[in-house]
Design brief:
Number of strands: 0
Order of helices and strands: HHHHHHHHHHHHHH
Number of domains: 1
Shape: globular
C-alpha cells in the first residue's frame, strides 16, 4: 500500500518535474529549430543573449520563490489569509520587476547586446532575438508566478498541464515561424512569448473558477512583507544567477582562447544543461510546498523524508543524464544542425562538462532545503559562492594555469568545491536538530 508520503511525492514532484522539463524543453526545441532553420551562428547569437534571459528568470524567482516559501509555511500554520497577502504582494512585485526588464530589453537592445559580447558575427541576430523576447517579459513573469503559487494552492496538475500545453504550442510556433514563414530568431522569440501568454491564460482559470484558497483582490501593500518575501527569495534568485554569470565568463574565455567554434559548441551544451537544470529544479520546486508545510507544522520526520527523497531523485536524474549523453551525445548534437567541426568538438566536450550535473544535483536540493526552512543565510552563502565567487575564480584561473582545454572541467570543479561547504553548513545548522522559528 502506498504511504501518504509517497502519494505526496507522486502528486507534487512528478507533475512539477514534468512541467519544469517541458518548460526547458521548448528552450531546447528553440535551439533545434534555430540551428536547423537559421544556422550554427544563430545558435551562438542566442547563447550570447542567454545571460540576459537568465537574469530575467533569476529576478522572477525573487518574488515567486520568496513568496511561495513564506506562503507554504503560513499554510502549514493554517494562516490562510496571511498566505493570500503573501501571494498578492509577490504578484505586485513580479509586475514591477517585469515592467522594468521589459523596458530595458526593448529600449536598450543594442547596448545590452554589445555588453554581452555580441561581435559583428552575431550582433544583428542577437538584437533581433533580444527585442522580441523582451516584448513578452511581463506575461512570462505572471506565468512564472502563477505556476509557483498554484502549485502550493493545490493545483500541481493544472500547472503541469498548462506548461506542457505551452511547450507543445511553442514547438508548433517554432516550426511555423522559423521554417514556412522564414522569420529567423525573431520568429523563435515570438513563438516562445505567445506560448507563455497562452500558459498564463490557462493558469488564470484557477482564479476564475475559484479553486484553492488564493484570491486576487485589492490590498494595502506592506513594506515589511515585501522585505520578508525578498529575503526568502534571495537564495534562489542568487542561484539562478549561476548560469548567466557562468555563461558570460565561459563565452569570454572561449572567444578569446579558442574561437567561434567553441562558442557555438557551448551553445549546444547550454541547451543540454538547461534540461538537466529542469530536472533538479523540478524536484526542488515540487518538494518546496511539502517541506514548507512540514516546517510550519513542525513535523521533523516528514521534513527529513522529503529532503532525503529529493537528494536521491536528483542524483538518479543526473546519473541518467550522464549515461544518455555518453550514448547519444553525437545524435543530440546533430539535432541542433551542428556542422562537422562543431559536431566533433561538442561530442568531446559535452561528457566532460556533464560531470558537473552529478554534483549540482546535491547543491540544488540542499539550497532549496535551506530556504524552505527559514535558513536563508546558509542558502545565500551556498548560492553566492557557486554563482559569483568560486565559479568565477575557477573559470578564469584554470585555463590560465593549465591551458584552454581544462575549461570544460570547470563546472564540475567549482560545484564540487561548493558541495563541500554546503555539507559543512548543513551539519553545523542541524548539530542540535532543526530549529523551528
Amino acid at each position: 500500500m502506498v504511504s501518504s508520503r509517497s502519494k505526496n511525492l507522486i502528486k507534487y514532484v512528478i507533475p512539477t518535474m514534468l512541467g519544469s522539463v517541458s518548460f526547458f524543453l521548448f528552450t531546447i526545441v528553440d535551439g533545434i529549430f534555430v540551428g536547423q532553420g537559421v544556422g550554427t551562428d544563430a545558435l551562438g547569437a542566442v547563447n550570447l543573449m542567454m545571460p540576459f534571459v537568465m537574469v530575467v528568470n533569476a529576478l522572477f524567482q525573487l518574488t515567486t520563490i520568496g513568496g511561495v516559501t513564506v506562503m507554504a509555511i503560513r499554510f502549514g500554520r493554517k494562516d490562510n489569509e496571511g498566505a493570500n497577502q503573501v501571494f498578492l504582494h509577490s504578484l505586485l512585485g513580479a509586475l514591477v520587476i517585469s515592467l522594468v526588464l521589459c523596458l530595458i530589453g526593448t529600449c536598450l537592445t543594442g547596448p545590452v547586446c554589445h555588453l554581452l559580447g555580441a561581435t559583428i558575427t552575431y550582433h544583428e541576430m542577437a538584437v533581433d532575438y533580444l527585442f522580441w523576447y523582451s516584448l513578452f517579459i511581463i506575461p512570462s513573469a505572471l506565468s512564472t508566478a502563477f505556476q509557483g503559487f498554484l502549485r502550493n494552492d493545490g493545483s500541481p496538475l493544472l500547472v503541469s498541464g498548462a506548461v506542457v500545453f505551452g511547450a507543445i504550442l511553442n514547438i508548433f510556433g517554432d516550426w511555423l515561424l522559423v521554417f514556412p514563414l522564414q522569420m529567423g530568431l525573431k520568429g523563435a522569440a515570438i513563438a516562445t512569448g505567445v506560448s507563455q501568454c497562452v500558459t498564463l491564460l490557462i493558469l488564470s482559470f484557477h482564479f476564475i473558477l475559484k479553486k484553492g484558497k488564493l484570491r486576487i483582490h485589492r490590498f494595502k501593500p506592506q513594506t515589511a512583507l515585501f522585505k520578508k518575501i525578498a529575503i526568502r527569495g534571495l537564495p534562489e534568485c542568487i542561484a539562478q544567477f549561476a548560469t548567466p554569470v557562468t555563461t558570460l565568463l565561459m563565452n569570454k574565455v572561449l572567444i578569446t582562447q579558442v574561437g567561434d567554434i567553441a562558442v557555438n559548441s557551448y551553445s549546444i551544451i547550454s541547451y543540454v544543461a538547461s534540461f538537466s537544470v529542469a530536472v533538479f529544479f523540478g524536484t526542488s520546486e515540487g518538494l518546496q510546498p511539502l517541506i514548507g508545510n512540514c516546517y510550519g507544522a513542525k513535523d521533523t520526520p516528514d521534513l527529513k523524508f522529503y529532503f532525503h527523497s529529493g537528494l536521491i531523485i536528483n542524483f538518479l536524474g543526473s546519473a541518467l543524464i550522464n549515461v544518455l549523453l555518453l550514448i547519444f551525445g553525437n545524435h543530440i548534437c546533430l539535432l541542433f544542425g551542428a556542422d562537422e567541426a562543431t559536431l566533433a568538438y561538442t561530442t568531446q566536450a559535452m561528457p566532460i562538462y556533464a560531470l558537473g550535473f552529478l554534483v549540482m544535483a546535491f547543491n540544488t536540493m540542499i539550497s532549496s532545503y535551506f530556504y524552505s526552512t527559514k535558513r536563508s543565510k546558509q542558502a545565500d552563502v551556498i548560492n553566492v559562492l557557486r554563482s559569483f565567487i568560486i565559479n568565477s575564480i575557477v573559470i578564469l584561473a584554470l585555463p590560465a594555469i593549465f591551458g584552454k582545454e581544462i575549461i570544460w572541467y570547470a563546472f564540475a570543479i567549482y560545484e564540487a568545491l561548493v558541495l563541500v561547504i554546503a555539507v559543512i553548513l548543513l551539519k553545523h545548522s542541524e548539530r542540535n536538530g532543526i530549529v523551528y522559528q
